């Protein structure tokens, strides 16, 4: 079986055109010497970030929460959530990765392209989870109480003290879980945008929507995943799990994680994301190889016939 299964025009396949690169004198591709050690180290760090995120979620206690008993913002009803955490993980993490792998097998197959695709997506989600969970335990209940907090707390009004405005969970009659204090930022929002923004960045580089073709369908393909991520985030307002500002900050974390992960794994010429016209989708591995070749060519030019290096 020959990959890709569906052959596109040559304009889509520039991953081996290493002469397109220009190497900076500060770019020393030391990882090309022991490439697999570097790749293993990358994945160890990704797994460590996932592990730390899970530990943050389960173990450390959030800061003490101080709240008013007459605050209407925390009196929303407790209703079933529209998208559970497990469903959100599949929808925001698994689904975009599976779709990208299918597209890769069908149209764009290249081994380093696949590697950086998987690594980049994992890095995006890992960074998003790490910083989201870090805010849960550091800021936590100061901004992390949920709209239904007082309803779940069911405070004992007989314990109120005249003149006292703020109370702690000691006044609650119902047990509260650690999850109830982890509203800031929204994990659903950060994961949704981390997964789907990386998805859009990848397709943007492959589809080349800014090349003057003016295909409306390309715009739809690139915006519908963002609409899906937005819907996932906004369901948390609808089911009273988050305030809008918690969703907004979570979304920013996810977007920043996706952009950072994409820039780590794919070459982008030009400011920010590049022009999207065909030279912003090259896997970073080819950048290392091209830089190494340029270094070897420069060394060869500086080597005279007697075998000694001449300084220039």
**What would you call the structural class?**
mainly alpha
**Overall shape:** elongated
SSE order in H/E notation?
Answer: HEHHHEHHHEEH
Please indicate the count of domains: 1
Topology, number of strands:
4
Assign a percent range to the helix content: 40-55%
Report the major sheet.
Answer: 2 strands, antiparallel
Mean pLDDT: 81
N-to-C CA distance:
51 Å
Counted by DSSP, the helix tally is 8
Task: List the uncertain runs.
Answer: 16-29, 303-312
**What would you report as the Rg, rounded to the nearest angstrom?**
25 Å
Give the amount of beta strand, in percent.
Answer: under 5%
Subcellular location: Membrane
GO biological process, one term: phospholipid dephosphorylation
Transmembrane segments: 35-58, 78-103, 115-139, 215-237, 243-262
Protein name: 6047_t:CDS:1
Task: Explain this structure.
Its main location: membrane. It is a multi-pass membrane protein. Residues 125-262 form the Phosphatidic acid phosphatase type 2/haloperoxidase domain. By secondary structure, the chain is an all-alpha fold. It has one domain (37-301). It has eight helices and four strands, in the order H-E-H-H-H-E-H-H-H-E-E-H. It has helices spanning 35-58, 85-108, 111-138, 149-153, 187-207, 216-238, 244-265, 284-301; strands at 67-68, 166-167, 266-267, 282-283. The strands form two sheets. The protein has a two-stranded antiparallel sheet. The chain is elongated and about 75 Å long. The chain starts with 34 loop residues before the first helix and ends in an 11-residue tail after the last helix. Mean pLDDT is 81; it is low at 16-29 and 303-312.
């Amino acid at each position: 079986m020959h990959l890709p299964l569906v052959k596109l025009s040559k304009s889509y396949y520039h991953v081996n055109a290493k002469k397109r690169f220009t190497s900076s004198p500060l770019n020393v591709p030391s990882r090309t010497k022991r490439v697999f050690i570097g790749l293993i180290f990358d994945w160890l760090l990704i797994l460590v970030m996932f592990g730390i995120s899970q530990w943050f979620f389960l173990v450390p206690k959030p800061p003490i929460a101080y709240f008013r008993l007459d605050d209407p913002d925390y009196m929303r009803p407790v209703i079933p959530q529209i998208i559970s955490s497990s469903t959100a993980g599949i929808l925001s993490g698994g689904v975009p990765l599976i779709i990208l792998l299918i597209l890769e097998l069908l149209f764009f197959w290249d081994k380093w392209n696949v590697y950086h695709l998987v690594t980049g997506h994992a890095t995006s989600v890992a960074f998003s989870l790490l910083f989201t969970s870090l805010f849960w335990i550091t800021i936590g209940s100061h901004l992390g109480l949920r709209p239904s907090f007082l309803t779940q707390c069911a405070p004992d009004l007989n314990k109120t003290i005249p003149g006292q405005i703020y109370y702690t969970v000691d006044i609650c009659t119902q047990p509260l879980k650690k999850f109830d204090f982890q509203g800031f930022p929204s994990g659903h929002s950060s994961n949704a945008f981390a997964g789907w923004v990386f998805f859009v960045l990848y397709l943007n580089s492959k589809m080349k929507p800014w090349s003057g073709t003016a295909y409306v369908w390309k715009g739809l393909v690139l915006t519908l995943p963002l609409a899906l991520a937005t819907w996932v985030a906004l369901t948390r307002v609808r089911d009273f799990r988050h305030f809008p500002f918690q969703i907004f900050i979570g979304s920013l974390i996810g977007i920043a994680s996706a952009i950072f992960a994409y820039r780590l794994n794919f070459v982008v010429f030009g400011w920010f994301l590049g022009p999207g016209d065909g030279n912003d989708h090259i896997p970073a591995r080819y950048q290392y190889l091209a830089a190494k070749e340029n270094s070897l060519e420069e060394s060869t030019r500086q080597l005279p016939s007697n075998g000694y290096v001449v300084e220039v």
